[in-house]
């Protein structure tokens, strides 16, 4: 009997929290768990060639600490970490073993704060869920800490300040470039985007979080955060269930900003008009290559919900490709699945994709084989099946084991054109390689 190994690629909640915290400059996670948790994070999170920050201070608890308690070991690790690693905030994360045996991690964090160290704790052991759950738990933990340690809720809102949630660092391989493009779009309509991760971000962005005029989430994974902020500070939110890619999706995203902030109407309309003209110009330039190389292919998409839905809108409505299969690699809630299906039903296409919620690599590859597609958009895990079927593969989703991703993005108008460039180059290279 053949042994089939499942590979979801989603990691656990602890790994998702680590990835989220490491994406905030100035934040230092401290792992209170066994050495295996840190090693598994290194092996799982470091699957893009540009990934860094794998060094994680850890208590590396062993059998002795599991049996007799590891709080004294944690106390020692916190002091050593603060002394050796410069940071603005230190966040203690407990693994499954230390959470199950009941180590009093909050007490150790409180003791450190009483000694003048900026230390908090967030409970996100791996058994709580996958990496997307870890993202949610990390953000909610930071919000709770902010709400109890500041009095910003009484300060006036900053007109035009917009908090952006829903892009999950690490699980979206293009997260940094995507957030930069969202910042650019919002700034072009006169708003100030408050981005919490990547270049230019830091603790200060979290400190002004309650003063925003609007919260925006670009996936269902940001909904708990924006709903909490609405309850805590009365801040309204705009729910855009996808990362905007290309002209159609970007226009829809900007229209949702008008609904939430009507005073942006004039600038949004100017931006969409300008973006539409640029879009038409560049599509005209590529029209001959599109026809000559038959870009209009039936395709399979393997991607998380936020990234995948934006790509699906662009590929079908802007570029005229034919969707056969969409394997959704994260695990959205039933509520989010209904939203996704509603968005797919609104696509102005004659063929709608078969949607499968699965992170099982073997199942996804069997689905691709059965669908007889001519093109795959997925991760490095799809290299083997693309070669087997001799069809082009554009790597767009986590994990990317042989790509360097820095500020690259497929979001927005310019990102949508980059998508067409990359897609066209893969199709042409496959065509020429087969001759």
The gist of it:
The chain has helices at 13-22, 35-45, 63-68, 71-84, 96-101, 105-114, 131-149, 175-188, 203-207, 223-233, 246-260, 265-292, 305-318, 334-345, 361-371, 383-389, 412-433; strands at residues 27-32, 89-94, 119-122, 158-165, 192-194, 212-217, 237-239, 298-303, 322-328, 354-357, 375-378, 393-395. It is an alpha/beta fold. The strands form three sheets. Strands 10-9-8-11-12 form a five-stranded parallel beta sheet, with helices on both faces. Strands 5-4-6-7 form a four-stranded parallel beta sheet, sandwiched between helices. Strands 1-2-3 form a three-stranded parallel beta sheet, sandwiched between helices.
Strand segment count: 12
Strand order of the largest sheet: 10-9-8-11-12
General shape: globular
Low-confidence stretches: 1-7
Biggest sheet, in brief? Answer: 5 strands, parallel
Topology overview:
Layout: H1 13-22, E1 27-32, H2 35-45, H3 63-68, H4 71-84, E2 89-94, H5 96-101, H6 105-114, E3 119-122, H7 131-149, E4 158-165, H8 175-188, E5 192-194, H9 203-207, E6 212-217, H10 223-233, E7 237-239, H11 246-260, H12 265-292, E8 298-303, H13 305-318, E9 322-328, H14 334-345, E10 354-357, H15 361-371, E11 375-378, H16 383-389, E12 393-395, H17 412-433
Parallel strand pairs: 1-2, 2-3, 4-5, 4-6, 6-7, 8-9, 8-11, 9-10, 11-12
Structure description:
There is one protein chain. This protein is α/β, with parallel strands linked by helices. 49% of the residues lie in helices and 14% in strands. It contains 17 helices and 12 strands. The chain has helices at 13-22, 35-45, 63-68, 71-84, 96-101, 105-114, 131-149, 175-188, 203-207, 223-233, 246-260, 265-292, 305-318, 334-345, 361-371, 383-389, 412-433, and strands at 27-32, 89-94, 119-122, 158-165, 192-194, 212-217, 237-239, 298-303, 322-328, 354-357, 375-378, 393-395. A 5-stranded parallel sheet has the order 10-9-8-11-12, sandwiched between helices. It has a 4-stranded parallel sheet with strand order 5-4-6-7, with helices on both faces. Strands 1-2-3 form a 3-stranded parallel sheet, with helices on both faces. β4 (158-165), α8 (175-188) and β5 (192-194) form a beta-alpha-beta unit. α7 (131-149) packs parallel to α10 and α11 packs antiparallel against α17. The longest helix has 28 residues, at 265-292. The radius of gyration is 23 Å and the shape is globular. The two termini are 39 Å apart.
């Amino acid at each position: 009997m053949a042994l089939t190994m499942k590979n979801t690629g989603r990691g656990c909640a602890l790994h998702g929290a680590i990835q989220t915290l490491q994406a905030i400059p100035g934040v230092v996670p401290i792992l209170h768990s066994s050495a295996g948790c840190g090693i598994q994070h290194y092996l799982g999170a470091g699957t893009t060639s540009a990934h860094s920050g794998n060094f994680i201070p850890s208590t590396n608890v062993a059998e002795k600490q599991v049996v007799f308690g590891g709080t004294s070991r944690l106390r020692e690790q916190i002091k050593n970490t603060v002394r050796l690693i410069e940071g603005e905030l230190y966040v203690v994360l407990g693994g499954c073993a230390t959470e199950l045996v009941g180590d009093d991690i909050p007490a150790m964090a409180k003791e450190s704060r009483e000694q003048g160290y900026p230390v908090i704790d967030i409970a996100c052991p791996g058994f709580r869920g996958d990496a997307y759950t870890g993202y949610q738990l990390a953000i909610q933990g930071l919000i709770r800490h902010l709400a109890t340690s500041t009095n910003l809720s009484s300060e006036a809102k900053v007109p035009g300040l917009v908090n952006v949630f829903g892009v999950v660092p690490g699980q979206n391989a293009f997260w940094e470039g995507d957030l930069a493009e969202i910042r650019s779009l919002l700034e072009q309509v006169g708003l100030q985007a408050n981005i919490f991760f990547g270049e230019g971000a830091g603790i200060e962005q979290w400190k002004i979080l309650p003063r925003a005029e609007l919260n925006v989430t670009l996936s269902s994974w940001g909904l708990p955060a924006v709903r909490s902020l609405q309850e805590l500070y009365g801040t309204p939110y705009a729910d855009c269930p996808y990362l905007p890619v290309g002209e159609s999706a970007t226009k829809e995203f900007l229209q949702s900003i008008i609904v939430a902030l009507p005073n942006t109407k004039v600038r949004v309309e100017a931006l969409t008009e300008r973006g539409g003209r640029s879009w038409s110009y560049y599509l005209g330039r590529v029209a001959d290559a599109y026809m000559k190389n038959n870009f209009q292919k039936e395709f399979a998409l393997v991607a998380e919900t936020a990234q995948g839905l934006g790509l699906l809108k662009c590929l079908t409505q802007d570029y005229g490709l034919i969707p056969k299969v969409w394997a959704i690699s994260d695990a959205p809630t039933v509520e989010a699945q209904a939203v996704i299906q509603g968005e797919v039903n609104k696509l102005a296409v004659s063929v709608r994709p078969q949607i499968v919620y699965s992170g099982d690599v073997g199942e996804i590859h069997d689905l691709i084989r059965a669908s007889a597609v001519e093109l795959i958009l997925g991760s490095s895990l799809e290299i083997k099946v693309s070669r087997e079927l001799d069809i082009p593969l554009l790597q767009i989703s986590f994990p990317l084991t042989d790509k360097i991703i820095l500020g690259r993005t497929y979001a927005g108008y310019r990102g949508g054109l980059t998508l067409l460039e990359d897609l066209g180059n893969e199709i042409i290279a496959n065509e020429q390689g087969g001759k």
